[in-house]
């Protein structure tokens, strides 16, 4: 069996994986980081979004072997020293979640968006979150949370 090695949330991990093991499976099953949610297994819902080398990827359709040697950040890796990341705090403050299932993927996608566009318009936010589905809300508070998160991140 091949071995995969990567940094996840600043800590080095390695393990044997079957060639068909998905990154989401490796993160959840082998590392025990269950904040990355599996919603569809078809890359439609975005609940599984993580950052690989600073870019958002849907981990349910990315092989663990594709992340070999990469720097991976999950939702668990955003908070630092007990302080929520500004985007996490903005989602909390602006009620950008209801059941919370989609929230980790939404937050990870929003952080990537703001890292590349520090002051996104509402239209840009909606366009960039198109690959993230929330079954509970009308997205109004999510967009509001992303705008507030962008300000909190310095945008």
Describe the structure.
The protein is α+β, with helices and mostly antiparallel strands and 155 residues long. It has two domains: 3-77, Ubiquitin-like (UB roll) (Roll), CATH 3.10.20; 86-152, DNA polymerase, domain 1 (Orthogonal Bundle). Helices cover 32% and strands 15% of the residues. The chain has five helices and five strands; from the N terminus they run ββαβββαααα. Strands 2-1-5-3-4 form a five-stranded mixed β-sheet, with helices on both faces.
Shape annotation: globular
In CATH, the architecture of the largest domain is: Roll
| Class by SSE composition | alpha+beta
CATH uppermost class of the largest domain: Alpha Beta
Largest sheet data: 5 strands, mixed
Q: Looking across the biggest beta sheet, what order are the strands in? A: 2-1-5-3-4
Q: What does the radius of gyration come to? A: 15 Å
Query: What would the CATH topology of the largest domain be?
Result: Ubiquitin-like (UB roll)
Give the CA-CA distance, first to last residue.
Answer: 45 Å
Number of domains: 2
Helix content: 25-40%
Order of helices and strands: EEHEEEHHHH
Number of helices: 5
Fraction in beta strands: 5-15%
List the uncertain runs.
none
């Amino acid at each position: 069996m091949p071995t995969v090695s990567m940094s996840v949330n600043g800590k080095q991990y390695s393990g044997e994986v079957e060639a068909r093991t998905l990154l989401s499976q490796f993160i959840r099953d082998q590392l025990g980081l269950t904040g990355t949610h599996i919603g569809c297994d078809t890359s439609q819902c975005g609940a599984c979004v993580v950052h690989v080398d600073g870019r958002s990827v849907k981990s349910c359709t990315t092989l663990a072997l594709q992340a070999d040697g990469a720097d991976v950040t999950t939702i668990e890796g955003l908070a630092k020293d007990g302080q929520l990341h500004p985007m996490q705090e903005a989602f909390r403050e602006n009620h950008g979640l209801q059941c919370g299932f989609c929230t980790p993927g939404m937050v990870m996608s929003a952080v990537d968006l703001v890292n590349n566009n520090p002051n996104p318009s509402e239209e840009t936010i909606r366009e960039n979150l198109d690959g993230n589905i929330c079954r509970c809300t009308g997205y109004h508070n999510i967009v509001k949370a992303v705008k507030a998160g962008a300000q909190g991140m310095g945008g």
